[in-house]
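Structure ticket #2291
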Amino acid sequence: MNLTHSNEAKLVQDVETLRIQFPQAKDLYREVCRLMFFRYGIQPTANKLYQLVRKGTMSIPAQAVSNFWSELRLKNRVDIEHSGLPDSLREFAGEALSTLWKSALEVARQNVKEKHSAINGLESSNRLELENCKAQLKKLESLNIEQSSELAMLRKQLQESEKRFLIDHQVSATHKESVKTLQYEKSALEGSLKSINNEFDTELNKLHAALKFSEERFRKLEAKSFLDVDRERQRTYKLESEIAELKKALLTEHAVNKSQSAKNQKLVNELRENVGVIKGQLKESQRQQLVASNKLKQIERKKALLK
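Resolution: structure written out below.
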């Protein structure tokens, strides 16, 4: 008879209990033989006994099986020893007791068989319930896989959203930093432009003052020259009568006046050149101011685009 998994476990547990009660190997093998045959309806063999007990050598379970079957045969054959009883009566009583023993043994086997049938039915029911549980577990595992897949997808979407948020935050921070940098550059350029304008105004005032001074000096020299010429003309008119007598002196005076006039003209030319240089510097300052103003407008446009 084959054992179910649950009966096998019970048999092993009962063997462990007997192991404590019967420490001697021979006694333990004897009791395990009885346990297998009478409680579980299993025909004991030396290999099965050794697999359950695992104690001593293989000769001990073999001897235990041999002794068990000998003892069982003796119990099936009952001899009545009583003085005074006739032989026929003793034989009849022995056969009756033997029949009674066999009937009891058959009832015990039938009970074991019924118990095994009940256990097998319960095992079938448990197996069916186990299959149902496995099917439900499989459905739950499939649902868990789907939910895990959805959860992984949601986590991936969350990670992508976090990455996009970090990128947007970084871009925003970069834009803010760029705006701050542009504002700083704007402030620096405005300060530089203001400084350039101040320097330009100072230089322009200086140039205007120098130009005014040069113009006044030029007018004075020109007036002086005109006055000198007029005086010379008046003197010439006055001295026409004395030309003949003072021709030599007049020629000398005329040469002196001519040299002085050349010097004055040279000075006037130098002043005109200075005025030209000052006008060129003024144009260069105006050009620098225009370049700075254009750069400031470009920064304002960049700032407007970043906003």
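Closing remark: Residues 30 and 64 are 6 Å apart (CA to CA).
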